[in-house]
Design goal:
This protein has one helix spanning about 170-180; strands at about 1-5, 20-25, 30-35, 75-80, 85, 100, 130, 155-160, 165. It has about 190 residues and is mostly beta strands.
Length: about 190
């Protein structure tokens, strides 16, 4: 599937009209893990630009294996974000790019009464996702979240190189723990 990369202004404006930055770009259904959320009582923890950053991938930041103190086998590096839910390009970081909902399969939170750019949100990078409000496969979830076309679960690559199917009924706190690299969470439940 070829997609277009859009911009809603600089800074992005909810009332703007999206303009095409690039067209006919290959889409992706896999994204890097930006991190988890709501750890230590900080309501902004895990947000796109908020520091400290707790995942594996972030703009202008490299992570060494030694910095993954939660363990390589317990840290998500890459997960699915189905291009049927969110159209984003496999072009890495494109300045000004907005991740947008698929025009053909809008999630329930899409509101046609709003200006087009109000339904789209600029991520830190269109090729990263987070686990913040919901674990994954939430039809009303964030365009920055993980979404899979598989019934009941999604594929994730862990930092030890293993790939595992996680059930979408996974406890949200467990998903947060798997998406962070250094929060010292205890995973006393199976996943």
């Amino acid at each position: 599937m070829l997609v277009s990369v859009y911009d809603c202004g600089d800074p992005p404006s909810a009332t703007g009209t999206p303009t095409v930055l690039l067209s006919n770009v290959a889409s992706t259904s896999y994204v890097g893990s930006l991190g988890g959320a709501k750890v230590g009582g900080d309501p902004l923890y895990g947000c796109y630009e908020h520091q400290p950053f707790n995942g594996i991938f972030h703009r202008n930041k490299g992570i060494r294996p030694a910095e993954i103190t939660d363990g390589l086998s317990y840290t998500v590096g890459v997960g699915e974000r189905h291009s049927g839910f969110v159209r984003s390009a496999w072009a890495g970081f494109v300045p000004g790019q907005e991740v947008l909902f698929n025009f053909d399969a809008k999630p329930r939170q899409y509101n046609p009464a709003l200006a087009p750019c109000q339904n789209w949100r600029p991520p830190i990078n269109a090729s990263v996702a987070h686990s913040r409000q919901s674990s994954f496969n939430d039809p009303t979830g964030s365009p920055g979240g993980f979404v899979s076309p598989h019934a009941g679960g999604a594929q994730f690559m862990f930092m030890d190189g293993s790939v595992r199917m996680l059930e979408d009924s996974i406890n949200l706190q467990v998903m947060w723990a798997l998406c962070t690299r250094n929060n010292k969470e205890s995973l006393d439940v199976g996943f």
